[in-house]
Amino acid sequence: MGSLLGQIIRERHGEETFDTVEKLRALAKKWREEGAGRDPNALADADQTFKSFAKLAADLPNSDLSTISRAFTHFLALANAAESHHRSRLIRDSITKQQIMGGDPKNEAGALSSKRDSCG
Fold first, then answer.
1. What is the structure's pLDDT at 114?
2. 73-110, pLDDT tens digit by residue?
3. Could you tell me which of 84, 118, 115, 114 has the C-alpha nearest to residue 98?
4. How far is CA 82 from the centre of its chain?
């Protein structure tokens, strides 16, 4: 899904906009991996990464900010939908295993495990 979004950004807004989105995304990911300012051992690195992110965003013209903000919004919505779907499948699989191993199919969670979602 992310690669499709990247393709659409390239087609609609050009390679430069795509590259900017990717730079910002990589900096945001790096900042998160460094503890997002919450890990005292990585505070200096996280602070530097955040400053780089903020400078790159601050240097963008307003017209680009709108496009890039929308790209991030769509990317995060796709990521959240994928994570939610993944978690739902894990929960359903766990409930199914519990039922197979002697769980109570009459409890609320057991009632949902046999229901199929839109993807299978």
1. 53
2. 888 888 888 888 888 888 888 887 777 776 555 555 55
3. 114
4. 8
Cβ distance 117 to 88 under 8 Å?
A: yes
Location of structure tokens 């890039």: 68
Q: At 102, phi and psi to the nearest 5?
A: 105, 15
Question: Global pTM?
Answer: 0.65
Give dist(CA 7, CA 76) in Å, integer: 16
* CA–CA dist 25, 28 (Å, integer): 5
In degrees and rounded to multiples of 5, residue 17 shows phi and psi of -65, -45
Query: By the 8 A CB rule, do 23 and 56 touch?
Result: yes
Q: What angle do CA 82, 84, 87 make, to 5 degrees?
A: 110
Question: Would you mind telling me the total number of residues written for the chain in this entry?
Answer: 120
Place of tokens 């989105």: 21
